[in-house]
Amino acid sequence: MKKIDETKHVESNKFQVILFTVLIFLLLTLLVLVIYLSFTGTNIFEKSKALSEKVPFVSQLFDRDDENKQENSILKFQEQINKVEAELSERQEEIIKLENLIDSRDKTIARNELEKQQLEMEIEELRAAQEINKRAFLDIIKTYETIPPKKAAPIISKMGDEDALKILSSIKTDKLAAILEQLTPEDAARFTKLLASKSSTNEGG
């Protein structure tokens, strides 16, 4: 029984030795082949791929790997396109907003400029009217200084106090005294009081 066990053990050891010898031989052969191909400038990976393509199962594995790489690159490229399109859309929206803002400001500036021009025209018209009124008033004063006090007094007495006061305060002193003499005592007293009040107000201002 012991001899049988020893025999089996010896056979097992021989098998292992043969197996290791074969493996070492294959590794050495492979190493020599790799060194030779490297020296000759042959691409080992391309050669292995070319050889594998001749084997149906292995070539399918390579084809699937290539297809997966292509699909992944296409997906990545599509993602980049979508990202660029989204950025372009955002930029376009910003440009439209800025254009609208500029357009609104331009309209506001144009409206303000138009209002300014209208105000300037109104001021010029008022100044012109004021000048006309001033000239007309001066003509009225000259008229009252020219006509006899006897004719001027009845006209002034029928005027309102404000208009009468403007005329009386603008004519010469001698003409004023002559017109007041032609008024009734009540009107003369009232206008004298108004003239004194206006004079004191002007002096105080």
UniProtKB/TrEMBL annotation:
Pfam families: MgtE_N
Gene3D superfamilies found in the cross-reference section: MgtE N-terminal domain-like
Stretches assigned to coiled coil: 67-136
The keyword Iron appears for this protein: no
Keywords: Cell projection, Cilium, Coiled coil, Flagellum, Membrane, Transmembrane, Transmembrane helix
InterPro entries in the record: Mg_transptr_MgtE_intracell_dom, MgtE_N_sf
Domain Magnesium transporter MgtE intracellular stretches: 141-195
Domain of life: Bacteria
Keyword Disulfide bond attributed: no
Stretches that traverse the bilayer: 15-39
Protein name: Flagellar motility protein MotE (MotC chaperone)
Species of origin: Peribacillus huizhouensis
